[in-house]
Specification:
This protein is of the alpha/beta class and 343 residues long. 39% of the residues lie in helices and 10% in strands. The structure holds iron/sulfur cluster (2 copies).
Length: 343
Amino acid sequence: MGVKKAATIAARSLIHGRPHHAQWFITRKCNYKCLDCNIWKEQDENEMSTEEIKRGMDVLRDAGIVELVLSGGNPLLRDDIGEIIDYATERFVITVYDNGSLAEKKIDLLRNVDFVALSIDSLDEEKQNFIKNVSGAWKSAMQAVEVLQKEGIKVSVAPTISQMNLYEIVNLTNYFTNKGIPVWYGLYSYDKPESSNQLFRIGSPNDEFIITDKEAMVKLCDTLMEMKKINKQILMTDKLLKILRSFYAEGKRTWNCKALQSFLVVDHLGRVAGCHNQTFAGSIFDLPKNWKNEKFNTQREQYKTCTQCMYLCYVFYSIYGSPSGHLSLAREQWKNASLLLKK
Ligand code: SF4
Ligand code: SF4
């Protein structure tokens, strides 16, 4: 990241009362059929044009967004993804998700991305192919990690922790971090079918994925906290791991949600919501006039006490979404931040 971009982004992250994180699901198309996901079942050919997305990104920048995650479906399926990435990298710290199928093919478009996150849930070929519901998924993802790293692209691995892979997360973490590849985690969650008001559904209910061995989950949090003392490639913070630990050890939620306050999501049609579980709150182009209105204020007050989900990205945005949060993150993650700035 250039010094100029780092400086403008740092300045933006210290302004109070603005959202700092946005996740933009720029397409509903996906080439995989993961067993823990609902998105591929509700694909939509409609999506915003390149110009609309660029205009939307200007709105997000002016609103205060510092970090933009481009996801989907698979965002790399869009023909204009190169143009979108180029526009985004000039304005935000960006993360681009891929299921491991397209990153290598589109490698030249990813050279300036701050984080390319590949979803690899298992080192076991058969298991990864089973979870992704696609034969060859493991091979292409493992090869993509290797090639991207060799080419100097900032690639990381993002497994979703579930009962399917709970006992191998430590091994998987060691495997990649020993190669100098950072690891960040998702947590399997599913959206309740009856929540019909929500923007869209991501997690699909599947008994095989629901974490039943809570003791093992607590132990995993303890082990990762221990490993983090010497392994700086584990991108999960202690604060986040402690929240996860309390949730599984005592069934306690020790975080308050800041949806529509420090973070928001945008769908493939440019609709904004606090999170994907919540109702549509307006178009991205109306964000400046809506941000301080009564409807938004009422919604963000409701979300503060919402206990509906434990999606780790939303927990993360909630606990680090304020200027003081950014400073504490910088303190805890200083080595990672330095790595990013050196790029
Ligand atoms: S988890 Fe990602 S890759 Fe898998 S089906 Fe859902 S959107 Fe596609
Ligand atoms: S806790 Fe927050 S992120 Fe989760 S469903 Fe509720 S409002 Fe959305």
